[in-house]
């Protein structure tokens, strides 16, 4: 009998060595990129990118002093940034500089998406790796409570991808919606998280009434505090398991219901959608943002951030649903499955939109 090791040796001998070496190089590059993602997250959370963007070439001591951080840690971080070709280091090795072209993708004041915000998902997901491995072996899921910073990172993500585009790109997807909001309608955001989008809408349209539901008490408290700080008397937030929405006694209450990346990780996504249909007025509209993808793995191979999205799905979206005894649909449920669920929930008129600035999401406009 041939051992597994002998079989592997034999198989490799029969392979194209150029392909083997190229794949090995790709794996090394993946390790380096993963390590850099951790350092990008650190640079974002500590404000180092923002600090360096406002400084000329400077020493590690000067950078640490300006940022209010420990110099030894800053110096080692600068080493990672230098060998990762993110920060420039002068030939004498004394000063460091963040090129403007790089700062444009790494700073809070960036006019484009701040990629360092998304880098935070890597250490956040890594923190539950042991839990996920346990689930691989035993089934079940990892509950929301284990993801201590997820709502914080999601709010920051939404703050640069959804909130700024509400007036210019998102609301115009529904003809006449802005005018209705100006006159005054009732709006519900299902799975509102920290309420960044809903609070922005409440501030823009004082004649309308806004309600946000989320299962996370911490997120709801944060959203409520922000509403009070902004003076949004027309916005309220409640702790509510939206899987139970279809059993509520408020049918036809809302003229607009929104979900921003919030359906696929629910315990019972179809029940949530049926509840949304029940709570929606007959002349209302349901506006859903969800991840752009196919319901077939091979069709997502060319997705620009496909590996990231499937990883987030496996290590958060799918598992938090399974932890509740749910379906575990996952972030990459795809357009085909989404349309199937929307129709089964009672929506007959569904338009699918893509926004020029947003390669990550589909925007579904659903009507009864």
UniProtKB/TrEMBL annotation:
GO terms for biological process: methylation. Residues 182-292 form the Methyltransferase domain. Gene3D superfamilies: Vaccinia Virus protein VP39, Winged helix-like DNA-binding domain superfamily/Winged helix DNA-binding domain. Keywords: Methyltransferase, Transferase, Ubiquinone. It comes from the Bacteria. Residues 34-108 form the S-adenosylmethionine-dependent methyltransferase Rv2258c-like winged HTH domain. GO terms for molecular function: methyltransferase activity. InterPro entries: Methyltranfer_dom, SAM-binding_MTase, SAM-dependent_MTases_sf, WH-like_DNA-bd_sf, WH_DNA-bd_sf, WHD_Rv2258c. Pfam families: Methyltransf_31, WHD_Rv2258c. This is Ubiquinone/menaquinone biosynthesis C-methylase UbiE. It comes from Marinobacter pelagius. The lineage of its organism: Bacteria, Pseudomonadati, Pseudomonadota, Gammaproteobacteria, Pseudomonadales.
